[in-house]
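Changelog-adjacent note: as of this version, every example in the card shows the full chain rather than a window. The one below runs 312 residues end to end.
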Amino acid sequence: MSGTPMDGARCSLGWSWEFWVRFGLYLFIASCSLATQLPSQIGTENGHGALELTSGLGRKLYALPDDKSVIDARESLVADPKSVERVLQLSKAEAARRQYREAVATTTEALAFAPKNPDLYLERGHRELGLREFKPAMDDLEHATRLAPEMLDAHYHLGLAHYFLGEFDEAAASFERARALAKSSDSLIDCSNWLYVSLRRAGKEQEAAQVLTRITPDIKNTEPHLYFYLRLLRFYQGQLTAEAVLPPPPTGPEDLEGELAFDTVSYGVGNWRLYHHNRSEAVGLFRKVVKGEAWNSWGFIGSEQELLRGEK
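Full-length structure tokens:
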């Protein structure tokens, strides 16, 4: 009897100690789990994913969170990790979510087992351009052109690498090679736009005017995004005014198509004003472009580079 109360006390105290140890362990595990999930959850709540780069203008540029296409492509690659086709599918899905560092890593891993595949060099070079890594992009894209001299996209993106570095003569040479490989009106429109602006920036006005002679009234686009390049070419030909060609600003961060159109045309018109010695109005357009979210668009990158050149 004398031992009963003490035994009861010991039992009660023992249960309390064990409960709190287990409870503390549970909290520790839960907090660790939350810590691993928090960055992606915060990114999703803020509408973006990982930090991809800080621009030369000092702005932090973010990816978008994974969507179903990224998740599905990742699972597909796990099932067949040596498939170049599935690697490219994942890289392009990542790039569509502005996950450019992830896309570069995806293609880099594939180049370890497929080092002579031109599509992988093209894909990696394309994404390096978006990361403003113009020299590495140039190396990859030159490699792609050596492996596949008839690959239009490799010459085209190589032209962009030169262009963003301010190497306008070299850019024009690459775009000329790309245009010579064009087999559709869409490719002709796309290459002609960049060939024209490269020649104008290189000070070769007469050669640039010759580029426009192939953009006849019957030329039509089939790819919707190239509608804006075609309208820019009509603007360069004098058939449209700047006021007529400039689209309205995007309605908000979710208006991706509207922003792509705005960036593309605003940069084109700003460029036009640059080589017509109206830098102040050009800079005004470039500043509007770099306030947007589509930091991987060529119009955004071109505007950013021009603003950086103006600061030097």
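Structural remarks: The chain has a mean pLDDT of 88.
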